[in-house]
Amino acid sequence: MRCGKNEEFGAYLARLRRQAGKSQRRLAEILCDLSGCSTVTRHEIGRYERGERTPRYWLPYIAEALGVSLDELERRAHSAAGGQSAEIEFLPNDDFSLTRFRDATGRGIGHEAVADLFARIHRLRLADDVLAGGDLIRPAVRELDMAIKLHREASHTEEVGWSLLVAIGELAQIAGWIASDAGRDQRAEQIYRLGVSAAREAGDRTLAANLIGSLAYHKTNTGDPEAGSALATVALEEAGDDAPPRAKALFWDRVAWAYAKTEQSQMAVRALGEASEALANRRAEEEPAYLYWVDESELQIMEARVYVELRRPLRAVPALTQVLGRYDSTHTRELALYLSWLAVALADANEPEEAANTARRMFELSADMPSERTARRSHVVRACLRPFQGLPEVRDLFEAYGYPETVNLASRSR
Predict the structure, then answer these.
(1) What share of the chain is helix, strand, coil (3-state, %, to 5)?
(2) Structural domains in the chain (count)
(3) Is 232 helix (H, G, I), strand (E, B) or coil?
(4) pLDDT of 241-254, one tens digit each?
(5) Which residues lie below 8 Å from residue 69, measured CB to CB, with a gap of 6+?
(6) pTM of the predicted model, to two decimals?
(7) CA proximity to 59, closest of 38, 37, 90, 29
(8) What does the alpha-carbon distance between residue 66 and residue 280 come to, in Å, rounded to a whole number?
(9) What is the DSSP string of 188-229?
(10) In 286-331, which residue ranges form alpha helices assigned H by DSSP?
(11) Domain around 39
């Protein structure tokens, strides 16, 4: 039997699996169920146990499936890798084929295949505008798996390899965002960190900064605003002075949001000003395609959200009302999220009847939507309206859509 350099970890994993009373096939099925994608088979479990591969990305799911300590699993895997930093690994489907990406000579992949990949990445971004994370998590991860396999296994020139690394970074950014929206918080963080590694290897500082900023936003919104604030600052440093204006505006917006969440109001308002100034300095130059959505309206939305978080509803309500009046109704998730901010701001402004009407529209739009973001926001909106539940409008809303659960209002902005 062929064994690999990680044989010791493989034997340890096999022992844990047997102690849990699971076959290789059953463990693979559980990992697929937990992760939401079908990229692990019993053959892959066999490779792990023979030490041919180390399942670094899958370790959190293996720990959950087998009921063991993730820290110990990671320590053993780290040791098996010779003490080197563990690279996050996405394992592609066994039946995936590179054939359709090879050039006419069959020697490898070229620029046409890379262009096709970037086109699919952009289509995924556009799909995210109108679909929720629960609808997109599987195709997003499949695309990321494919890009990684192309880079690792297909023959290509150095220039094509660099382009593939950039594609992996861009895919990691949108896939991380989608995973976060699907409620896969740990997985989103892992994907973002993978993307940072790919972007840095490609030498793309703006892309690396975008991924770090995305991770900052994710951490800020999932209960660790201090880490989010630190990462948002790192993103600005990573980007450097030569970053495109839209990128700078986006990175400053994330800094502003992190400051608001850590109750640093003056710093938050100052960061908003930096974002506006950066966007105002936009020149007629080519910018990365993934920045297409960063415009004055988005900055206005973030400014309003910051003011909601800082409990300044008189600054937030007019801005939100203005933007929502012209917002694209096909972007249902974002529309529901922005309505939730308006509802909270109206409640803070002691306008509970109007807040209830706004919340009703938000609940109608987000009903059955597979988005963890909208689910969290609906809980926050209910909690903010709880003090007004004696009013007919609020009582009717709760009777139709459920009474508020116990929510920590300190984290109401998630």
Answers:
(1) 70, 0, 30
(2) 3
(3) helix
(4) 889 999 999 999 99
(5) 63
(6) 0.74
(7) 90
(8) 53
(9) HHHHHHHHHHHHHHHT-HHHHHHHHHHHHHHHHHTT-HHHHH
(10) 296-309, 313-324
(11) 7-80
